[in-house]
Amino acid sequence: MVRREIIKKYAVFGNPIKHSLSPLIHEYFAKNYNIDLSYEPILCTLGKFTVEATNFLEKGGLGFNITLPFKQDAFKFAITKSEIATITGSVNTISIKNGVIHGDNTDGSGFITDLKNNIGYNLNGKKILLVGAGGAARGVIPNILYQLPSEFKIYNRTLEKAQKLANVFKDIGEISSVKKEDLNKYNFDLIINATSIGISNSKFELSEIFFKEDAVCYDMSYGKASNSFMSWAKENNLQFYDGLGMLLEQAADSFYIWEGERPEITDELRKLLKNKL
Ligand code: ATR
Known about the structure:
This protein is α/β, with parallel strands linked by helices. It contains ten helices and twelve strands. The strands form two sheets. It has a six-stranded mixed sheet with strand order 2-1-3-5-6-4, with helices on both faces. The protein has a six-stranded parallel sheet with strand order 9-8-7-10-11-12. The N and C termini lie far apart (45 Å). Bound molecules: 2'-monophosphoadenosine-5'-diphosphate (ATR).
């Protein structure tokens, strides 16, 4: 008799997807819990998300992550959604909950966990500036608001987009946009880069002084993409953290949704990832 191995099938959908670190992270988690699991990077054709996601689930897939540019498609694909997914209109984790396709978003929780548990930074009562008003910014706003900062502003190159984004979340907490020329009216504790400036290798440029001497800079990107904000932080003598911890924590939250275990992020795993960057 042929013995069939039962492997739990997971995946990440994106375009591009080649450089995704998620397979490495989830395979590491699975190994530590002795779970027989496959986690496949799937290069999804633009406009074909629903077809390809349905196909994966029909072939026995138990769940998957979603990265750019499909998080809104995944939101539409999910039948039921978590509160955060509903508020952000964006889904990064699909699971099957009581036989129904369920959408979650762990980006915001991963971001907060990294700040709180790994960096030891508490957002409560802090003055926060979020730079950028695209999908990445949108994903973390509700979780930041839940921490009750004393000030929360969005600055974006295109002001109108910052205004619109602030408006989306105004019922959850105090949030508004800020113009470039008004930045110097503030004294921010935390500056978060949620732009894609680093991906295009452009320079992060903001010349006014609008932060405290001991302000913390956090880039939601990592690797080469975080170099431009890191250089700016260093020029201004500010502490800097990249988004590698956020990537790991959001993965741990997704793994918990699927497997009911929340993996600890070890130094060994961090090292493993840094070597891949
Ligand atoms: P993502 O999903 O990664 O957030 P996005 O939705 O395309 O990507 O958003 C990219 C963000 O980076 C936007 O806030 C964009 O500013 P605009 O709204 O003005 O386009 C910002 N961004 C990208 N390149 C930039 C640059 N060179 N300078 C300033 N902001 C930039």
